[in-house]
Amino acid sequence: MTLDPWLLERLVCPVTRQPLRHDEAAQELVSEAAGLAYPIRDGIPVMLVEEAREI
């Protein structure tokens, strides 16, 4: 599922406030700065640190 480009431009990592990279294959938003990947479930980004996995 493709994430809306408008939304992707506005989302930032809640930890670092840096932009995120969309990993479409893994359905995650990746914060290189924080070393975290936030899941996208049913097309909705889950921007909770508790739900992110370390990369």
UniProtKB/TrEMBL annotation:
Protein name (database record): UPF0434 protein GQR91_04980
Protein family according to the UniProt entry: Belongs to the UPF0434 family.
Coiled coil stretches, renumbered: none
GO cellular component, one term: cytosol
Native organism: Sphingomonas carotinifaciens
InterPro entries: Trm112-like
HAMAP family: UPF0434
